[in-house]
């Protein structure tokens, strides 16, 4: 009789433990699932006002400054050390690397594009970037200062920022109308499809682009 009761209570204990164990196993899976559902339900209502465009613009400007500043420093050092032909080689390898590093550091995709691009892949503007570059040209023609022309918009949960890049005198050695034969030779070697020459000081050379996916 005693033995039987022990067995019953053991069975009850085991059952109880089994149930507890099952619930415990379910719980961690169930909790995040509920949170996900709650987040999804809340998202449509809160997505639009949650975008702080002014803060994104500030971050984008910081990213542009980081990329522009680093490129300028590298270019100046390379021009001093070896002149435009040497500097061309450095631009060729370093410019894409620097853009990648700054993008990773800032959590935003930073690049440079142009209507007349030199880099055949990264320098090529896509459809909306081409539209913005054309708009920048129109603004400059209407008398706006190229140094301050910029664009910022949120489209399909994507933050988009562009900032015009004016051509300075120092750029003309590699982007101008009268290039040295050595520079021309190097350009032909590195960029057989180059379109980025023939610029004058003050022309729009292109623009910085910053993109951030807000859905992530
Ligand atoms: C030593 C030569 C040299 C000088 C000087 C130079 N660039 Fe460039 N530039 C290049 C090269 C090479 C590339 C392509 C880099 C790459 O492959 O990403 C380039 C690319 C660019 C791009 C990216 C879009 C494109 O056409 O592919 C912009 C914008 C640009 N340069 C602006 C400037 C500006 C503004 C200056 C002056 C402040 C300047 N560059 C001076 C050699 C030069």
TrEMBL record:
| InterPro entries recorded | Tll0287-like_dom
- Protein name (Swiss-Prot/TrEMBL): DUF3365 domain-containing protein
Source organism superkingdom:
Bacteria
- Enumerate the spans annotated as Tll0287-like domain: 21-210
């Amino acid at each position: 009789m005693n033995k039987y009761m022990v067995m019953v209570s053991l069975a009850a204990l085991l059952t109880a433990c089994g149930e507890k164990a099952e619930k415990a196993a379910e719980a961690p899976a169930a909790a995040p699932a509920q949170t996900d559902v709650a987040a999804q339900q809340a998202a449509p209502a809160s997505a639009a006002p949650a975008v702080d465009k002014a803060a994104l613009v500030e971050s984008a400007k910081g990213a542009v400054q980081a990329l522009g500043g680093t490129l300028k420093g590298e270019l100046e050092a390379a021009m001093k050390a070896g002149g435009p032909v040497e500097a061309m080689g450095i631009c060729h390898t370093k410019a894409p690397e620097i853009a990648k590093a700054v993008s990773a550091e800032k959590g935003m995709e930073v690049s440079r594009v142009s209507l007349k691009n030199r880099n055949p892949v990264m320098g090529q503007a896509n459809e909306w970037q081409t539209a913005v570059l054309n708009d920048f040209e129109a603004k400059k023609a209407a008398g706006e200062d190229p140094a301050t022309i910029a664009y910022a918009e949120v489209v399909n949960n994507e933050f988009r920022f562009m900032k015009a890049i004016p051509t300075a005198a120092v750029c003309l050695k590699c982007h101008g109308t009268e290039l040295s034969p050595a520079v021309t030779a190097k350009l032909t070697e590195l960029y057989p499809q180059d379109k980025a020459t023939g610029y004058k000081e003050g022309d729009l050379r292109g623009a910085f682009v910053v993109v951030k996916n807000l859905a992530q």
